[in-house]
Design brief:
Oligomer: homodimer
Helix content of chain A: 25-40%
Shape of chain A: globular
Number of helices of chain A: 14
Distance between the termini of chain A: 44 Å
Number of strands of chain A: 17
Largest interface: A-B, 40 and 40 residues
Strand order of the largest sheet of chain A: 4-15-14-13-12-11
Radius of gyration of chain A: 21 Å
Strand content of chain A: 15-25%
Chain lengths: ~400, ~400
Amino acid sequence: MQTESGKWKVESRLTKASVCRSPPSAFRFDLKHTDAGSAARRSTLHTPHGSVEMPAFMPVCTLGTVKGVDIGRLGETGAQMVLSNTYHLALRPGEETVAALGGLHKFMGWSDPILTDSGGFQVFSLAQRTKIDEQGVTFRSHIDGTLLELSPERSVSIQAALASDIAMVLDHVIGLPNSPEAVAEATWRSVRWAERCLKAQMASSREDQILLAIVQGGLDPDLRRQCAKALVALDFPGYAIGGLSVGEEPADMYRTLEATVPELPVDRPRYLMGVGRPEDLLESIARGIDMFDCVMPTRNGRNALVYTDQGPLRLRNAAHEVNNRPLEENCPCPACRHSRGYLRHLFQAKEMLGPILASIHNLTYYQRLMLGAREAIVADRFDEFRQEKLCGWGVGRMQSRSGTQGK
Amino acid sequence: MQTESGKWKVESRLTKASVCRSPPSAFRFDLKHTDAGSAARRSTLHTPHGSVEMPAFMPVCTLGTVKGVDIGRLGETGAQMVLSNTYHLALRPGEETVAALGGLHKFMGWSDPILTDSGGFQVFSLAQRTKIDEQGVTFRSHIDGTLLELSPERSVSIQAALASDIAMVLDHVIGLPNSPEAVAEATWRSVRWAERCLKAQMASSREDQILLAIVQGGLDPDLRRQCAKALVALDFPGYAIGGLSVGEEPADMYRTLEATVPELPVDRPRYLMGVGRPEDLLESIARGIDMFDCVMPTRNGRNALVYTDQGPLRLRNAAHEVNNRPLEENCPCPACRHSRGYLRHLFQAKEMLGPILASIHNLTYYQRLMLGAREAIVADRFDEFRQEKLCGWGVGRMQSRSGTQGK
């Protein structure tokens, strides 16, 4: 087990230049400021494809595209890093085709940073007849039933072919609620797989990709802490928290973050996977999370639900029929060139442009929310910012850091 | 019958300033140049919402949007005027809703010129249980079966509410082939309806909308000529040719143009409705047509067929799987930021972005073709330009102006 430390530090503390596993020089995590009133952090992640200002939200490019959004429009939303799905791309068009087309950046036409997940979540949520053992997973493709296998080494290999900037370890994802024994078994298997992923990735000596660990442990704070400690001992350049936002109460998610985050090194990025609603993002930032991804803004957009500072709107509602106002007065997105009445018409008439514009608006909304969060953190007023937003959305503060539960 | 003349002239000939039916001053048709070797014309149509350089191609915004293309991207294709469908908008969301949302320009977010058709074509092609008499048409909505009526006066009224720059007369469209009697009856009814549309439009004293006539007559050159003469006597500010590209041989369409165009005044725009393939555009420009609209570039784009100077490509073809080239090396459109392999992947994976990008590429291709035509006309080399394009596409010259039929 790799136990060296100090290889991935806040820039000012980078002293051991000779350590062999230092992240490639193009990667650097600068922790710039921590909010005076919360654990919210303002940081910058530098990668070979440019920098990401954090807290950051990554739009999900499942199959190498945010559904319905061209890459130019995606850049205009303010997104600086996107997530793409290893499972989906390995099935279609196949990682070798992506590699033959120049890797994921060239394939998508996205020159900024890209993170790929490991495929684990989709294998457990989408694939059919999944069988798991210590070696890995065998499953049948959800598209054509082809028998496939995914192991920690194979996941690293696929992500290397895709040539993302940030790869994720393969973890054993299980549904919640589940028995404590099953959660513990999946958690410790995930730790062992993380170590195999790390070894496979080190063997490749890549300079242009880093690998992040994923803390599992269900809703058990002790198991989360133990898992985090074991992964931190492996000395990854960053840590994700997985297995949340899978149906549990928001308060349970926040409590789990409160147990887990303090175990993670201050000088590495922290990524909460698959989360979430705007209020989840702010509550998680307050608890020290730096990165997010979620299909919610695009999936909801496709279903005519759009975000505003006054809470979400359902565009199919007849109340919008002759409403001349844009979704948000000060929003620069292409949807906000139009009236709510026009956008409603697009959904009523089943025009593709409805889902397209609502997706772009929601992604823009999330990016503007992250921008607001970053500005609030450096001004030491993140808690005030969070309260303003929650109040506008009509959402109670879900749970304070001291444990008292709102709403 | 209105028989005054000289109200809509080439700018240099505008002498009768006091004529009551002069097009509003914001409308002007400048015929700038006629190609030395063909009837191709280079002109500019001025409207209250700006100018249109002609020959021009209008993308079709059926329900107030080009399917899948946001209005900013549409502008980037080079389109200067768009067509929107009266029938579709009257059904959804209804012209009163469009008017309440500020008219079609504000509704769509398009500040350049808009032409609306009359609804006639859709009533005859889409509506159910259509009954026609001299008064107008009754039919049932193709959406919900509601009983509706369309008359010349109602069509003008709907288009006034939509507030397009250019409205079209309601015509009686019939399928081809059909009996000579049926074609003649529909043609002369169309002329009577055109006169009723003109009276209705004059009664409204609109300064911001002009009404164009539509020449019918099937494939009968004599009937076409008679219809054109009758409509020209009514002194419209521009003339369309309808009822073509409905399944007839291209050579028949070109012969019909050759019979009809010489009857139309030189000093007014000529619009060939619903046409067509790139080669149809060039052949029709050579015969004196100034304006076109067609769903072909977008409908084909949605079905993975894209246009290039080497002829159309079917993107689903396996040959494109690992092709790193863009569709066209010198095309500035967002699709051409990507490889053919990526675009094929989008279609194979049924991603919305495939139809979106292919539509934008095809619209850009059509606009670049019109730009090339305009440049060739002013250089008196339109015929050479046409030959180059037809040769690149692998298409024979369909029929010369002298009547010898190619291919």
